[in-house]
Amino acid sequence: MSIEQSVQLNFLSRADGSAYYCLGNTSVVASVTGPTSGRVSARHHNKCNLEVQFCPCNGQPTIEERDVECIIGECIEEILASHLHPRATILLNIQELQSEHEHQLLTASLNGAVMALMDAGVQMQGLLAAVTCCYTHAGVVIVEPTALELQESKSSLVFVLESDTANVVACYQQGRLSVAEYTAVLNRAIEAAKEVFQFYRSEMLKRYSSHGCIDGQNEADYDYDPL
Amino acid sequence: MGESRHVSSMKVVLPGDLIMELPVKPVDTSENVFLGPGLRWKDGVVRATRPGILKKDSRNLYFIESHQKRYIPQKREFVVGTVIKNKGNSYLVDIGSHEPATISFLAFENASKKTRKDLRLGDLIYGQLLVANKDMEPELVCIDFYNRAVGMGTLPDGGLLFKVPLHVARSLVNPSNPFLLELGARLSFSIVVGFNGRVWVKAKNMADMTSVMHAVSLLECMSTEEALIKMHSVIDSVLSQCAVD
Amino acid sequence: MAPLNSWEVIEPANYFKSFVDQSSRPDGRDWNTARPISVRVGSIGTAEGSATVRLGNTTIVCGVKAELCRPSLEHPTRGFVVPNVELYPCCSSTFKAGPPGEKAISTSQFLQRLLQNNEIIDYEQLCVVPNKWAWCLYCDILCLDYDGNLIDSSLLSLVAALLHLSLPTVNIDPDTEALSLSQKHTQKLTIKERPMSTTFAVYNSDIQLLDPSAADEAECGGEVSVVLMESGDVCSIRKTGGRQVGVLLPSAVSSGKVQGFISTAQSRLSGIHETLKEALELHASANRKEP
C-alpha cells in the first residue's frame, strides 16, 4: 500500500474506547461509549442498539452524512456480538477532521470505528477493513489512491472486507466497469485488506506489549470460574 | 481469592482469531477446556471476541486479558457502587454497567424487616454480584452464603472514589501486587477495589488520598515496574503541592 | 390456518428456515425466481413524467416534476435531478411517520449517485439559459405497497419516468427576458443509458435469494444490488451489511459469489428491458390514438 496509515488508540479520556486514525490525507476521530443505557424507544429485547453519529468537519450534518451513518452502522453491526448486550446501546461517534474525497472518508471512518471498538473491548465476532480502490482510464488498478487519482479515474470503489474469510461485507461504487475489470479491482482490494488487518494486529501488539503484561509480570491469581 | 494458580501468557489476539478447534466434548475430564472472558465457542471452533492477551492457567482455563473501561457485570465479582435511587424495598446502585444493579434492604449483615438498613442516595456500597446475566438487571448483596458481611457493606464517609480501567482494577485486587505493597509501605491508607474499576481510598488526610489516586492512575498507561519507579516522584510532587496549598 | 400463522409469528426464523430447507420461500418461489414485473408509464397526468412499477406486491409510483431554477455557480450549464424516495407508514407498518428513515435516505442517495456518476442523463440538456435558467427535475418516488426489493423497483420506476418525461419548451422574450412555457411543443430528455438493478438477499454464505420480498428481507442479512447497463457492464454494485442478531457474519459473500450475482443479473437484463420497452410503446400508441 502506497499510502501511510497511523492510529493513536485511547485518544479520548472520557470515551470507553477511541481511535485517532489517519489514512493518507484523511483523518478521523472515532469514539465508542458503551454498552450503556440508551433511549428506551430504541431498545431491542434481543440485541444491543448501535447508534452511529457522523460529524462532518464543517457545517451541520446533512442527508449525506445520514447515509454514511447508515453504511457504517450496517457494516459494524455485521461484526458486533450484539446479542450479548440486550437492551443496551453502543454509541459510535465519528468526527471527520480532514478529508479530500468521500470514498477516502468512508474508508477511514470505518477503519477508525473498528479500531475504536477494539480499544473499547466491545465483543466482536470478527474484524472489518475498508479499502478504497480506483480503476484508471489506462486500465490500472490503484489501491488507496490520492484524491486527484480518484477524480481522474474511470471508476472508484470502496470495499469492506471481513478478516477471516476475506468475504465482502459491503461495496460501493462510482462509475461503470466491465465484469473483468471489476474482478481485477476486487482481487486487489482483498490483497490490500490483508495489509490493513496486519496494521490492526501490529497496533494491538504495540498496545498490549507496552503495558508489560505480555512477559507474564502481571500474573495475578484470577478467580474466574467458568462453571 | 482462591488458591493461586499459575497463569501463562500466550500471545496477542484480535477479535475473530481462531484459538483452537474444539469439536466435541472430550470424554476424559482431564482434557476439559474451560473458556473464560473474551472467548466464544461456535460451530466447533473457539474464537476470540476481544483484542488482548490470550492466557491459560494450569487447569486449562483459557481467557483473554484485555483493556476495557466499561464494566460488564459478572456473577460473584466484587464491585463498588453508588446508591442512586430508593425503590422502597430495594435500592438501585450504579456500578458502571449499562443497567444499575439492585440491592435488597435485607441483603446486609444483621438486617431484618425490623432492623432495616437505611441507605441514603450517594452512599457507596462494596458488594458482590449475586445475579449477573445479560437478560436481567444485576443484583448486589453485601452478605455471603452464611449471612456474614466479610468486609462488604456501605463504605464510611470521608473517603475518595475514583475510576480506573478494568485491567488496572484486576491487577490491584491481587494481595501480593508489588505496586500496592510498595504504596502501602510509603503511605498508610485503606483501599477498596471493585472489579468494575471503581477504587475507594481512605487515609488520614486529603493529601494522602490524592497521592494514592495519582499513584494508582499511573498504572493506566505503564507497567507495574515503570509505575514503581515513577510512584515516589508523583507522591512527592502531590504532597508538596498540597503542603503549599 | 391458525397454527401455521402463529408459528410464523412466534418463530419467524424457524418458519422461514423450514421453507429454505425445501429450496423454496414462504411465497412459493424458489431461490432464483423473481416476481413478475409490470410497468406503466404516464400514470400521473399532472406530472411531466411518471411511471408505476409493480414488482410482485411492491408498488412504486414515480412522478417527475420539472421546475425552472438557477444553475449552480460550479456548473452553470447543468441542470439538476433530485430523486427522493418516500416510505410512508401506509406502505408497511415497519416505517414510521416523520422525517425519512435510514432506508429512504440511503435509497435516495444511491439513486442520486447512480445518475450523477455514470452520465446517464445529459445534464447539459437540462440547461435553458446558461447561468440563468435550468430545469430541476424533482423525482418523487413514492412507495404505495412495500413488499421488499425497494432498490430494483425504485430504479426501474425512476428510469421509466425519466423516459416518459417531456419537458415544455421555454420561450424567452428577448426584450423583457420574461419566460413563457409552451405545453404544445415538448421535448424528450435524452437518456444515454438505462441502468437496471437486480437485488439478492443473503441468507447465508451458500443461499442467496433473488428479488427478496419483505418477509425474505426480514430473515436475511444484507442485500446485494447489481446495477448493470444494457451492455452488461457493471454500473454499480451496492452491498449493504445486515442488521441481524447473533449470526456470524450473515451477509458477507465471497468474491466468487459476486461473480455469480453479476451473471444472474446479466441473464435477467433482456427481460426487464423488454418489459420497459413494451410499456413505453403501449403509452406511445395510446397517445397517438387519443388526439
Write a structural description.
The complex is a heterotrimer of chains A (227), B (245) and C (291). By secondary structure, chain A is an alpha+beta fold. Chain A contains 4 helices and 9 strands; from the N terminus they run E-E-E-E-H-E-H-E-E-H-E-E-H. Chain A has one domain (5-209): GHMP Kinase, N-terminal domain (Ribosomal Protein S5, domain 2), CATH 3.30.230. Residues 212-227 of chain A have low confidence and may be disordered. Chain B folds into 3 domains: 7-65, RNA polymerase II/Efflux pump adaptor protein, barrel-sandwich hybrid domain (OB fold (Dihydrolipoamide Acetyltransferase, E2P)), CATH 2.40.50.100; 78-154, Nucleic acid-binding proteins (OB fold (Dihydrolipoamide Acetyltransferase, E2P)); 160-244, 2-Layer Sandwich (Ribosomal Protein S8, Chain: A, domain 1). Chain B has helices at 166-172, 178-186, 206-217, 224-244, and strands spanning 7-13, 18-21, 34-35, 39-42, 45-48, 52-57, 61-65, 78-86, 90-94, 101-104, 124-131, 139-141, 153-154, 160-163, 189-193, 198-203. With 245 residues, chain B is an alpha+beta fold. A 5-stranded mixed beta barrel of chain B has the order 8-9-10-12-11. In chain B, strands 1-6-7-3 form a 4-stranded mixed β-sheet, with no helix packed on it. Chain C has 291 residues and is an alpha+beta fold. Chain C has one domain (28-289): GHMP Kinase, N-terminal domain (Ribosomal Protein S5, domain 2, 2-Layer Sandwich), CATH 3.30.230.70. In chain C, a hairpin with a 6-residue loop joins strand 7 (166-172) and strand 8. In chain C, helix 1 crosses helix 2 (12-21). Mean pLDDT of chain C is 87; it is low at 245-249. Chain C has 6 helices and 12 strands. Chain C is 31% helix and 30% strand. The chains are: A alpha+beta (227), B alpha+beta (245), C alpha+beta (291). Chains in contact: A-B, A-C. At the A-B interface, strand 3, helix 2 and helix 4 of A face strand 1, strand 3, strand 6, strand 7 and helix 1 of B. Chain A: Belongs to the RNase PH family. Chain A: Its main location: nucleus. Chain A: This is Exosome complex exonuclease RRP46 homolog. Chain A: InterPro entries: ExoRNase_PH_dom1, ExoRNase_PH_dom2_sf, PNPase/RNase_PH_dom_sf, Ribosomal_Su5_D2-typ_SF, RNase_PH.
